Amino acid sequence: MSIVITGASGRLGRFIIKELLHHVQPDQIVACVRQMESAASLEEQGIAVRFCNYDEPASLKEAFAGASRLLFISSPHPDDTVRLRQHAHVIEAAKKANVGHILYTGFAFPEHSDISMTHLHLATEHAIRTTGIPYTFLRSGLYMDFIEALDLHAAISTGNLRVHPGSWQFNAVTRSDLAAAIAGVLSVEGHSNKTYELVAPAVWSFDNVVSTLSELTGKPISLCPINEVQHWIFSFLRKIDTASTSGDLEHLLGRPVTPLIESLRSYIGASQI
Ligand SMILES: NC(=O)c1ccc[n+]([C@@H]2O[C@H](COP(=O)([O-])OP(=O)(O)OC[C@H]3O[C@@H](n4cnc5c(N)ncnc54)[C@H](OP(=O)(O)O)[C@@H]3O)[C@@H](O)[C@H]2O)c1
Questions:
Q1: Which terminus of the chain has a smaller tally of CB atoms within 10 A, N or C?
Q2: 6-20: per-residue pLDDT in tens?
């Protein structure tokens, strides 16, 4: 079995490869990267590294040669129309290379939103279906990273977490949980033509964030919803589904997702505690 992974130099890709090494031998993994020098540590572990650029179709067919499974990590390009073209290149190359199975990391509950990002992910899933190749759609929840935009350190020093008003609820997840689940799916049979919503099984709120921060720091921290807080993240969050839940991620992990307190502990850093 040859598992070919795009975006292997990225944060999610690296986590997935680390997890995958618990399931398969290094010589069963092919890491596809844009800059070969970024993959020296993977090569040292016995993982084959191939050049791949979503903008260069010829590179993709060569990169995907012999793949029994292709893990296609979505492009991070900021323009979704460009991403659509890049993704079409990947899918066409997968078909030409006779890839055995395509696993795609999209975004959770894309049908619940009407923005270019969710249309891009749905369009990519539909395009993958046109190939007739068995697929698995790994729809990732919002990365927990978004809370970095809230300036938790300022909240700790001032005692106030300033947010835009709203009844916010979050099904966000850590990349490490996503990676563990995706690595598990990649390494066994039985996931053909399945769609997984990889989100938390229960939502948390900003009230939960302040009470958890208070617990971690031993300092009282209050939630301060005010209209003056106009960070772009709030307008983005309003447009996507951050409240629907699913048991798919925990089911694939075979354990609970990382609790909010552990995520916050790592974001604020041990020195704060
Ligand atoms: N669910 C969420 O909340 C969320 C948030 C942000 C992004 N995402 C999506 O999830 C994906 C993975 O996340 P991540 O954190 O691993 O992102 P990341 O750290 O930015 O990694 C992106 C990967 O894509 C590669 N890449 C970029 N352009 C490419 C191209 N033209 N051809 C081939 N490879 C290319 C990068 O290679 P280089 O190292 O050469 O740049 C890198 O390996 C992102 O790409 C994005 O689509 C999801």
A1: C
A2: 999 999 999 999 999
